[in-house]
Amino acid sequence: MTNISDSIKSSGELKLTDQFKFVASRSIDNKYRLNLGQKIIKLLNEWYPFKSFDIYISSNGYILLQPMNVIPANEQWIWSNPQVKASFERALEDAREERTTRVEDLDNFLETL
Length: 113
Hints:
Blueprint: E1 2-3, E2 19-20, H1 38-47, E3 52-57, E4 63-68, H2 76-80, H3 82-96, H4 106-111
């Protein structure tokens, strides 16, 4: 594995901390397309599912593809507001750790909030 950089991604500027390993070689076709192939996509999907890539090019010609997911516009407010995002992340952690309460009567529960 080759260490590409010693910094982190922040404020829209790409900085890398991860190490990279060679996975495969691919050629571009006559329309300048690059097919990553099933092996690479399956490998990436083992970490988390994704729908697209952000593409970064360094000053020395390295290309980095960062798997991305699109956030629906009606859910963007969650990730744009730090307080809401933190609350949402706490709720997800509570659910993972099974710190939840089963509600039998939802209408009654909502009236008590």
